[in-house]
């Protein structure tokens, strides 16, 4: 792995204790999670503690779960020991675990910390809380509470916490491969510092960063300036490129005039983009902000854009649950439709096309085939029949549509296979429709806003203005959905979609 340049290393050495081990506590983590996500992680910790204590007791009894259940029914799990005392001890241990984990920033995003470092902090939180519990037991002298149960509980909690974080990180890494959970990054500057930071991002997988380009400074600061093919713009065009490249974070590793930094910071806040700088360069702009390490590089986040992570996690869970239920319950319908498509006209049962998903990621969208086999080749022949304005293309009586295809489109049955796209994570049940690449090429800069979220099978436009030919209405409703999104809105759109489908108002 390439090392940092000597000049850059000297400047950050005062705040970076090691190139290979991030310090404990706040310095190894990222910005705080949203309150909902923190609550979810705390709830999972509590479930782990209580599950571990139950398993420890069952192991101690040697008689299986039936005896433990009988003891619980009679109000105690340990002879002569009040259930309220045991619950108090367990709750105390859990609260201590919450406080210790929060102090070690284990409820913050894990992408900046290495796997081993996260596991070490998890074990530290568990056994620090265990010391609190053993101290309480020493003071109370409860001779009838077996010490073996306490030790087994602590060990099982440590294993459970570590295993859960391992699975979460494995899932996160799996999302990195198709680019779903990566964070797009622009680096301001083109000098040695900027290139060293880029190499660090691209060489360390768990960071989850995707380099999108350099922003050239108005005054050159190195031999690299203006010569790199990855330079995509200047400070004047910075936030145009953040929109085009779906940028999540901007890095400023090079010393700049504070007036310039304040201007970039203000614009970053307005655009909802994170901004990171080297901590010893702009202390007065981020007093008391924790240091976060990107590999060996210490940074501070001057601004963190809003991200309802807990809500999005619940949305993803709802997508998986509802799409799986839909595919199972509608499997007879899928088989009948597939047979009808095959018998009606020659060609494959399914039609897949490349669509543009969240933040410009390309994926293949699956539908039942509703047109003749050579429909794409005949597209130019029917362009004059287009009934939509601007970017959209739609013909009500398209001569390329098959007989079965007209029925499928009327009741939106052709879109049922897209539940497989939902299971894969390419799509959501509710969201803006995924556009074609040819459509996105005609988008204005403001239109790219609809690509900030995962595309959906149905959405606000489909249930409210599906027959409206206006492209402006199409964009406006999608942006309205993005700006006002919540789970309740999704549920209302799903309910309205069912009515639209049965009414047969599809095209």
Outline the fold blueprint:
Blueprint: H1 6-12, H2 35-61, H3 65-73, H4 83-103, H5 115-140, H6 147-176, E1 183-188, H7 192-203, E2 209-216, E3 231-234, H8 238-244, E4 249-252, H9 258-271, E5 274-277, E6 292-294, E7 297-303, H10 309-329, H11 331-344, E8 350-356, E9 362-368, H12 379-382, H13 403-410, H14 418-424, E10 428-430, H15 437-440, E11 456-458, H16 460-464, H17 471-483, H18 487-503
Parallel strand pairs: 1-2, 1-4, 2-3, 4-5, 10-11
Antiparallel strand pairs: 5-7, 6-7, 8-9
Task: Explain how this protein is built.
With 507 residues, the protein is an alpha/beta fold. The protein has 3 domains: 6-19 and 182-306, NAD(P)-binding Rossmann-like Domain (Rossmann fold), CATH 3.40.50; 31-176, no CATH class; 310-503, no CATH class. Helices cover 49% and strands 11% of the residues. The protein is built from 18 helices and 11 strands. It has helices at residues 6-12, 35-61, 65-73, 83-103, 115-140, 147-176, 192-203, 238-244, 258-271, 309-329, 331-344, 379-382, 403-410, 418-424, 437-440, 460-464, 471-483, 487-503; strands spanning 183-188, 209-216, 231-234, 249-252, 274-277, 292-294, 297-303, 350-356, 362-368, 428-430, 456-458. The strands form 3 sheets. Strands 3-2-1-4-5-7-6 form a 7-stranded mixed sheet, with helices on both faces. Strand 1, helix 7 and strand 2 (209-216) form a beta-alpha-beta unit. The two termini are 55 Å apart. Mean pLDDT is 77; it is low at 1-33, 63-81 and 222-227.
